[in-house]
Structure formats: structure tokens, C-alpha cells
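# step 3/5: fold
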Amino acid sequence: ALVAPQLLQQQISQQSPLQSPLQTTLVTHQTLPSMIEFLQQLDEAEETGDYYIKFLEGFEKQRVRVKHLYKLNDTQFEACGVTTIGDIETIRDAAKKYK
């Protein structure tokens, strides 16, 4: 539905002074899982048993967190032990929701 700018401004000005736009963003932002939780969730989603969890040690060795995954290039993934294109793309795609 289209909302007239005047109505939108009125709605914004009626928000509780305790609820800033930043707080609203933080409430709707995904909670960041630990790396082990992320890899376990990926294994469940992809139905791959314990396949992705085997990369945990490589990510920990390089001190990579979930928030870093979507930004890693292929060489950085390889430094963590992830060498196949499909695995890199699957991990990167799954991590995008935690930007």
C-alpha cells in the first residue's frame, strides 16, 4: 500500500522516544551464531551429515567468524581448508544473511 509522505512522517514522530531507528534495526537483525552453530545449521540445511563441520578447525585457526564469511575471497577460503567452488559458494551464500 502507498503511504502519503505526511502520514509516514506522522507515524515516525509518534514513535516512542525510547525506540530509536537504531534499536529497531538491532531488533530485526539476525543474531550471529558461533562458527560451530553456523556449520551445524549448514549441514542440516544441506542435509550433508557432518560435512561442513569439518571446516571448523580451519576457520578457528585463521580466527574467522561467521560475520567474515561472506567477505572472504576464494584464496582466503582455501587458507581455511575450503577448496571446492561449490563448498565456498554454499558457505558464502549461507553467511550473507549475517551481514
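# step 4/5: annotate
Residues 10-16, 19-28 have pLDDT under 50 and may be disordered.
# step 5/5: archive (pending)
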